[in-house]
């Protein structure tokens, strides 16, 4: 797999903040398969169970620190100690509903955490690439059927979405003030931000997300209670946006000065499915169970009804494309949870096997980042 992403990651020191989380764990395992020296900085795994513990992700890391991104000095000291060449910033409070309960904590972590990370990067001369992971929810949501493009205005109704819009503005200010692409030969840092849709995949145990809610109910042989059955989201397997992040960061590393912008990595229009459709597919793939749309908490807080991402820019400029349909994403996801439920397989092996299978499928489809152009 080391040929993927133009061989960029082999032997590189890469820091992942939020490495104990769902996406951070998948990213750390993939980077390790690519031959990177992977470091992490985050609070403890946010759920129990967690992919980080179940797949023993710590085993593949060159080092990691359990630390808070709100602690500017500690974060700066750690980044200076690691001297990474590439930084992926995923650490965040990522839940809409929790953000209504703890808005200040959400803003502190997501906005000041981003400021603190960028301060650490400013003080660490080794960094060549920094990528800040925000969200499709960073856009001002107009509840219309059109997909959002990278040049649409930032916004956010609830504290989580708004904190991600603010995080984008922080990135934009740091890029213009300290990491401008016109002066890249002086400061040396290529800074981008990335916005993905609703991500599904094995090992997510977060509260109030549809897949973990489904699995918790199916395990107990109870009906799945869906809160927002008609809400449309851009669903994608976690490996899809991660392939976009890795490809973009590789391009940033190889061609500094060309990609310092915001980028959408979504599923394409075919992945925009209502929540009830996802529940129906999960039940079918699991082999038993049912779902109901009578959730008692349905309208407790405002959540966006329509949200789609336009991925034309990533398609055209990066030649990045999704490799999976929503059906494939559900197959992989439920397959992972069935392995977890059986308790007989190594979940690190299951996860890495899925990364390999996904990469091979992308290569067979001719997707650029996956193709071995050296014939090695
Ligand atoms: N999962 C999705 O569907 C989705 C969609 C769009 C964007 N995102 C973004 O992707 C990133 C990762 O999301 P996830 O689903 O893996 O979330 P997660 O909750 O599984 O992981 C969050 C990570 O951030 C860390 N963290 C939280 N607060 C911290 C703090 N104060 N200091 C240091 N570390 C802290 C946690 O320990 C964990 O490692 C987030 O930035 C999230 O907003 C996720």
Provide keyphrases for this structure.
376 residues; alpha/beta; Rossmann fold; seven-stranded parallel sheet; 12 strands; globular; binds nicotinamide-adenine-dinucleotide
CATH superfamily: NAD(P)-binding Rossmann-like Domain
Unreliable spans are none
Shape: globular
Radius of gyration, Cα only, in angstroms? 19 Å
The CATH architecture term is 3-Layer(aba) Sandwich
Content-based structural category:
alpha/beta
Question: pLDDT average, as an integer?
Answer: 93
Fraction in helix: 40-55%
What CATH first level would be assigned?
Answer: Alpha Beta
The quaternary structure here is: single chain
What are the secondary-structure elements, in order, as H or E? EHEHEHEHHEHHEEHEEHEEHEHHH
Strand order of the largest sheet: 3-2-1-4-5-6-10
The percentage of residues in β strands lies in 5-15%
Q: List all distinct small molecules, including ions and cofactors, that are bound in this structure.
A: nicotinamide-adenine-dinucleotide
């Amino acid at each position: 797999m080391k040929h993927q992403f133009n061989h960029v990651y082999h032997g590189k020191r890469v820091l992942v903040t939020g490495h104990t989380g769902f996406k951070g764990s998948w990213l750390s395992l993939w980077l390790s398969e690519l031959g990177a020296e992977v470091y992490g900085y985050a609070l403890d795994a946010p759920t129990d169970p967690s992919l980080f513990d179940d797949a023993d992700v710590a085993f593949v890391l060159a080092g990691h620190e359990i630390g808070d991104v709100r602690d500017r000095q500690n974060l700066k000291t750690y980044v200076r100690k690691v001297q990474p060449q590439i930084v992926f910033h995923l650490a965040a409070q990522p839940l809409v509903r929790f953000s209504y309960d703890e808005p200040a904590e959400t803003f502190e972590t997501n906005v000041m955490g981003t400021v603190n990370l960028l301060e650490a990067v400013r003080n660490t001369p080794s960094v060549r690439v920094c990528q800040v992971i925000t969200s499709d929810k960073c856009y001002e949501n107009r509840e219309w059927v059109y997909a959002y493009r990278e040049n649409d205005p930032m916004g956010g109704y609830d504290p989580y979405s708004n904190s991600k819009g603010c995080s984008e503005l922080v990135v934009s200010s740091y890029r213009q003030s300290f990491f401008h692409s016109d002066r890249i030969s002086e400061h040396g840092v290529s800074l981008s931000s990335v916005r993905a849709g609703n991500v599904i995949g094995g090992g997510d145990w977060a509260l109030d997300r549809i897949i973990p809610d489904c699995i918790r109910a199916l395990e107990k042989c109870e009906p799945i209670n869906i809160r927002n059955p008609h809400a449309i989201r851009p669903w994608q397997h976690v490996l899809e946006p991660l392939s976009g992040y890795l490809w973009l960061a590789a391009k940033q590393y190889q061609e500094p000065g060309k990609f310092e912008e915001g980028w959408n990595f979504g599923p394409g229009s075919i992945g925009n499915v209502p929540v009830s459709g996802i529940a129906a597919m999960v039940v079918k793939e699991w082999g038993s169970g049912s779902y109901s749309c009578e959730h008692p908490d349905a309208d407790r807080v405002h959540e966006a009804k329509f949200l789609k991402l336009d991925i034309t820019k990533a398609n055209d400029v990066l030649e990045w494309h999704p490799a999976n349909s929503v059906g494939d994403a559900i197959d992989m996801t439920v397959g992972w949870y069935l392995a977890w439920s059986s308790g007989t397989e190594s979940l690190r092996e299951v996860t890495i096997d899925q990364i390999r299978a996904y990469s091979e499928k992308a290569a067979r489809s001719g997707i650029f980042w996956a193709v071995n152009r050296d014939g090695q």
